Each structure stands twice: as structure tokens, then as C-alpha cells.
């Protein structure tokens, strides 16, 4: 037992008082003098047997002992069964009883002496087993120690024999090289052979290479090697040279070789790890060595750079650069931008050289890349833009030319985005751009005028020149493109082409009939009359312009329209102006870039390439580009990505600067205004980029001094979860123009009560926003004067006090309305009527030119010549 048990401890274990336990031990024949004496296991067993006998287990009669060896089990189970059927059916209880008797085998009782002998026998067997195991372990340890000693001795003998052999070979070589030296010994004694050791050549002995042992016992004690100063065990004292040979002043290569070969395959893992760390830290032949001189870097810095980027270029911590700036008197944080001069000063202060980079390096490379497009120019199809007022027949005219029905598919029958088509006519290929005529799409018309070669201005003969007609003329003049006027709807009864020509004179558009240079063609898009004349005029104008382009090489063009398709991703409709756009080309488009994955024409058919003046849809861009952005095909994706990122950074900086300026302007503008201006927040999502621009401009233009329309977010594509969260946070109204909200966005909109409205016609958007803004403005209380009575005389009454005899000189005076008493056109009292009488009768109202008596409530200072003004308060809904 690992711990002896005293009587006191045994009493605590069995929860018995110490005195009682001593008495029981004494009764069992074991005398103990005190509670601190040790109780053995044999004595415990003896006490247990005595207690069992004293409790009567061994003194029972034979009947009781026999009964204790027999167990009887009784079990009963009750069931119900149905006997008979119909009316004679009865239920009978069935009880099943079972009795089982189990008898214990007859074993004679064991006497106390037999119990003691059995316990002693078991203890003796346990001792013998423990002794045998200890002897076996000792024999194993001795065998392993002898094997390890034998292995060490064999390794030392092999090393010593190898060293003596090498020494003999070197002595033989030396005697062969210098045979004339007579004093050199011809033989060496065994002691002389064993004492010297081979050296490195600079006086230090070279250690012997120990042989690799076949088996190494990991439990045997090992020699620990620390650095190059190792203690060698198992060598006699007289072998001091071998014991310390080669341990001091090793070269790095020798130390690495010694560390690598000292253990072989049987080496332990810690020493292998230590040698690997030593090799990584520079102990090996090809290890890293610390630089002896500071590293000077050439740091490329642009016009501005953030402190974090500068620290990364300097390979320093951001805090070190901030500290250097603080020492120079510049208080800048790690995320703050600093100019080139400040960055150059701190870079030179830290010991590096500055190289100024060109901020437009990527743009310059792109320009040089684009200038490489050279070749022979050939004639290209003209790009014709159809412009004009809404509902003047632009799309219908294009439908007749294309022999398709586009207008029937437009929402509301009006065009709401630029449609790009190329048509093969009898006079060649012509590319058409159909622009919207609604007033909200000014930016689209301006963009169409810049992209085009010829502008066809459609004017309805029965409607004349309208505001968007004048705007289209201005856009064409600003773009410097020739203008052809198509006078449409001449088949209608009220058509007056001469009126159109006269009204265009005011816009400095002079027809050829009047001596000008503008071609005007009368036609009907419904019947087709005059359409061929229009195509002839376009072809004639194109020949005069001599439109030419390079049909081969890298393509250059402009984005006409862009959208976000749920299945295809960003889709851009582009117009190729130079070169040839092919599938697989890398292109940069504004702040977006990508590789052309697919090209589609206006009918949805996939094409492999597109030449000059051909509009196509491009798939594969990284994002939705802005309408009007130029695109350029580049050689690789790296240049496209660099240019796009550089443009994005410039746009972000300009947007931040513009936002800061707008904030200052807003502050200055609000200084003279009160806090009464309300705000209506909107989130606009549309199907194409042009519609987003048009909606944003049209809705923001509704702002006035009373309410400000604030578009907090706008974009292309469906209404997403982020849009719904932004609207819920800003309490904004979500406008979906030809788009819908997804399931997650609908859950957020319904949960937060966000106002969501879908539209497909821009008229409805503007009208609905006006209604929402009017609801925010609320109602205005206005006072309207309905009548004036002049006081002719004043009578005193005991009941009403002063009663004014009046003549109604204007309007009508009503008893239920409030009044004001005017004296010399100044208000002296404001209240209400107490009585209004005509002769002796109370009346509700008195009209103009009628006399009456008026009692003013709580006012008795009415004098002749005063005027009593009767008015009413009305609520007027505020509108934009």
C-alpha cells in the first residue's frame, strides 16, 4: 500500500466513533493501545469477518439458511376475450399465473480460518507478480544500456581507426613529396600516430567523422552539442587532442557540414530542428547574411500619396512615417493624403531617393496604344440620329425603314432610351440612333448628337415646332453635324408643312426652298410617302461628308447605352467608330474593363465581329459603364486594368472635391434660409443607364425653396437588398423604372414599411413624385376676406352692449365667421360676432348693400367710421 491506514482514519472512513472501533477490534482478538496505530489489511479482513459473525449470519438455524438459498417468483397476467357474437357477445377475464422457484447450489460455508488462508494466498501471489515484473524491467534496462555502450564503443573505435588511417596516408604522401629531408622520421610510433590529428591548414585540428550507427537507442543518455563548443564523452584523458579537435573556430560551411552529418538518420528531431534553424539564420554556406550598409530605395511618388502607401513603398511601419512627419511639423494621420513635396521631404529624410511618377502614365500608354491603329481608310456607313419632339413619329419612321414594329413595344408608345440599329437599304448600310423626345431625356439627345454624323429632325406637320424640337436644333448645332428636317404626318388633314418651315426660320434653320442649305423632306411614316426621298437625302449628305474609317486593327468607339442583366451581367451597347471589335478582345471602357465574351446585334443574334459604324451589345465588362464613355481595345488585360483603376481613382478624388465644394455652397446658401425646407429622399433604379440619368435630372429639377428632392442612391438593375436597406435607413421612397425588387428586398421593404412604386412611363414618375412631395408639404392655412361692413352709427343695448349699425359695402357678412375691426385701415380688434340682426330678426348672413346690426363679442369700443371685416380660414394643399 502506498499509504498506511490508522485506526482514526479507518473510523472516519466507516463513519464510526474511534472508541467503538477500538472495542470492536478488542472483541475480535486484536489489541491496540491508541487510535494512531496502523491497521493492516489482514486485520481489516479479520474485523470484517468478526462483525459478520456477530450480526448472526453464521448462527442461523438450518431452516432459515435453506430458505435463504431458495427464491420463488410469482407472476400473473390478466387478459380480456370476447365470446359469441351479436347480442350474445360477452367479455370474459382470463388470468394466467406463473410460479418459478430458483435454488442456490449447496456450497458449504467457509470458516474464518479458510478465509484468512485465502486472503494470505492472494497477497503472496500479488507480491510474486510485482517482484517478477521489477526484475524483468531491470533486466531490460541493463540490456539496453549494454547495447548503447557497445554501439558507442564501436563508433569511437571506427572513428579512431579512420583517423589513424588518414594520418598514415598523409605521412606517406609527405614523405613521397620531400624524400631529401634526412631528419624526417621514416616510421611513426603508435603513440605518435594516435596523437597528431589532421588540421584545416590554419593550425586548428579537424574533427574525425564518426561512423553512422546502425541503431541508436533513444532512451540512452546523449551528448549535448551547444554551438561549436561540444563536450565529447567516452574518451580517455590522454586523448585530449581528439577530444577537443576541431570544436573551436569553425568556418560557417564546416559548421553547417558538421551539424548536418553529426547525427545521420538516427539523429533526434530537436537537434535536426536546431540545425535547420541554424541554416536559416545564416549558418549554412548559402545562408542569409545581414546587410552591412543601409538599403537605399527608389520610391515612385505621384502628385498625392497617402501616408500608408508611402510607408509601404518605404518598407517601414506607418507609425515611423507619421513620426517623421511630426518631426517636420506636418500633422498627418496614416490615412491622410500628402502632396508630392511633403512626401519627397520625408522620403529623403528617411534616407531614400524620390522618383516622380506621371499620374497619367497609364493614360499615355493607352493613347500610344490607340495611335498604333493605322491603315488604309475606306468608306463607312453613316450614323444617323433621329431627334424631335415626343409623339412626332420618330420611332414610327424608323419602323417603316426597318420594316419592324418597335413603337408598339415601347411603354406608353414613347421611346425612353436610345435605340441603336443598322439597316441595309438599297442605298447601302445606314446606322440609326433613335433618341427619346421627352423633355427629361436631354442628356440622351445631347449624347446622340455627339455620336452621330447626320441628324434627322422629325417635326409633325400638324403640330409644328415644339420645345424639344428647338432643343434638338441646339444640340445639332453644338455638335456641328449637318441637319436634315423630316416633316412627318403630311397625310393628316391638318398638316401644314409651310408653317413648319416658317417656324424653323426662327431657329436659323433655313430650307433649301427659301435659299438655305438645310434639306427638308415631306413624308408620312404611316403610309411611307417620301421615305425614299429621305434615304436619298441621307445618302447624298453622307457622300458630301466623305465618311471614312480604318476597318482593321484595334477598335475604338463609344458607349451608347448600358444596363445590368440578371443572367448576363453588365451589358453595354457600343458603337464602333474605328477598327474592328472581335470576340475575345480586351477593352477598357471608362472606369470599367474586361474581355469581350460575346457580341450581339440589335436583333439578339450573336456575331463574331463588328466594324465601323455598327452598333453591338458587349458582354464581359467588370461593371456597368456610364453612357457616353469611350472604349478602346488594348493588347492585354493588365493595361486595361491599370487604366480603369487610374480613372476610378481620379473620379473618386474629383467627386470628393466636388462634394466638399457643394457642402460649402450648401452652407452658404442655407445661411439666408430658414429651417423650414423639407426633404424628399428617393432611391432610383432603372433598366438602363440613360433612364437613370434622365430620371435623376427630371426629379431633382422639381426642388424649390419649400422642398428639396434628394436622390440618395441610383443605379442600373433590379432593386436589391442593399437598396432596400438604404431606403429604410433614409426613409426614402423607392422608384423602380422597368425593374422589380427581389425576394430579400421585398421582405425588408414590407418589414420597414418602405414606399415602393413601379413605373414604366416617365410621365407617371414625375406626376407621382409631385404627389408624394405635395403630401410632405402638407396644407397651407389661408385667410380669405368674404365681406366688409362700414359702421354708420353705434347704439347702446343693455343686453349686447354697443351695437354697430352697419352697411355691408362689399361681399357678405356671416355670423359664424371671425371678424376684425379696422380703424384707419389698422386692425384694432380681432374676434367674433355676438349677434347679427336685420331689423329685429337674427340672420345668418347679410349681403352687399344691406343694412344690419352687428354686436361684437367682448368689444364695446366700436366707433362710427370703423370697418368690420369678415373673413374665413381655408386649407390649401401645397403643390410643387
TrEMBL record:
<keyword id="KW-0963">Cytoplasm</keyword>
<dbReference type="GO" id="GO:0005525">
    <property type="term" value="F:GTP binding"/>
</dbReference>
<dbReference type="Pfam" id="PF11987">
    <property type="entry name" value="IF-2"/>
</dbReference>
<dbReference type="GO" id="GO:0005829">
    <property type="term" value="C:cytosol"/>
</dbReference>
<dbReference type="InterPro" id="IPR036925">
    <property type="entry name" value="TIF_IF2_dom3_sf"/>
</dbReference>
<dbReference type="Pfam" id="PF03144">
    <property type="entry name" value="GTP_EFTU_D2"/>
</dbReference>
<keyword id="KW-0342">GTP-binding</keyword>
<protein>
    <recommendedName>
        <fullName>Translation initiation factor IF-2</fullName>
    </recommendedName>
</protein>
<dbReference type="InterPro" id="IPR009061">
    <property type="entry name" value="DNA-bd_dom_put_sf"/>
</dbReference>
<feature type="region of interest" description="Disordered">
    <location>
        <begin position="246"/>
        <end position="293"/>
    </location>
</feature>
<dbReference type="InterPro" id="IPR053905">
    <property type="entry name" value="EF-G-like_DII"/>
</dbReference>
<dbReference type="InterPro" id="IPR027417">
    <property type="entry name" value="P-loop_NTPase"/>
</dbReference>
<dbReference type="GO" id="GO:0003924">
    <property type="term" value="F:GTPase activity"/>
</dbReference>
<feature type="region of interest" description="Disordered">
    <location>
        <begin position="174"/>
        <end position="227"/>
    </location>
</feature>
<feature type="region of interest" description="G-domain">
    <location>
        <begin position="382"/>
        <end position="530"/>
    </location>
</feature>
<feature type="binding site">
    <location>
        <begin position="388"/>
        <end position="395"/>
    </location>
    <ligand>
        <name>GTP</name>
    </ligand>
</feature>
<dbReference type="InterPro" id="IPR006847">
    <property type="entry name" value="IF2_N"/>
</dbReference>
<feature type="coiled-coil region">
    <location>
        <begin position="120"/>
        <end position="164"/>
    </location>
</feature>
<comment type="function">
    <text>One of the essential components for the initiation of protein synthesis. Protects formylmethionyl-tRNA from spontaneous hydrolysis and promotes its binding to the 30S ribosomal subunits. Also involved in the hydrolysis of GTP during the formation of the 70S ribosomal complex.</text>
</comment>
<dbReference type="InterPro" id="IPR023115">
    <property type="entry name" value="TIF_IF2_dom3"/>
</dbReference>
<dbReference type="Pfam" id="PF00009">
    <property type="entry name" value="GTP_EFTU"/>
</dbReference>
<feature type="domain" description="Tr-type G">
    <location>
        <begin position="379"/>
        <end position="546"/>
    </location>
</feature>
<dbReference type="InterPro" id="IPR000178">
    <property type="entry name" value="TF_IF2_bacterial-like"/>
</dbReference>
<dbReference type="InterPro" id="IPR004161">
    <property type="entry name" value="EFTu-like_2"/>
</dbReference>
<comment type="similarity">
    <text>Belongs to the TRAFAC class translation factor GTPase superfamily. Classic translation factor GTPase family. IF-2 subfamily.</text>
</comment>
<dbReference type="Pfam" id="PF22042">
    <property type="entry name" value="EF-G_D2"/>
</dbReference>
<feature type="binding site">
    <location>
        <begin position="434"/>
        <end position="438"/>
    </location>
    <ligand>
        <name>GTP</name>
    </ligand>
</feature>
<dbReference type="InterPro" id="IPR005225">
    <property type="entry name" value="Small_GTP-bd"/>
</dbReference>
<dbReference type="InterPro" id="IPR000795">
    <property type="entry name" value="T_Tr_GTP-bd_dom"/>
</dbReference>
<dbReference type="InterPro" id="IPR009000">
    <property type="entry name" value="Transl_B-barrel_sf"/>
</dbReference>
<dbReference type="GO" id="GO:0003743">
    <property type="term" value="F:translation initiation factor activity"/>
</dbReference>
<dbReference type="InterPro" id="IPR015760">
    <property type="entry name" value="TIF_IF2"/>
</dbReference>
<keyword id="KW-0396">Initiation factor</keyword>
<keyword id="KW-0175">Coiled coil</keyword>
<keyword id="KW-0648">Protein biosynthesis</keyword>
<dbReference type="InterPro" id="IPR044145">
    <property type="entry name" value="IF2_II"/>
</dbReference>
<keyword id="KW-0547">Nucleotide-binding</keyword>
<dbReference type="Pfam" id="PF04760">
    <property type="entry name" value="IF2_N"/>
</dbReference>
<feature type="binding site">
    <location>
        <begin position="488"/>
        <end position="491"/>
    </location>
    <ligand>
        <name>GTP</name>
    </ligand>
</feature>
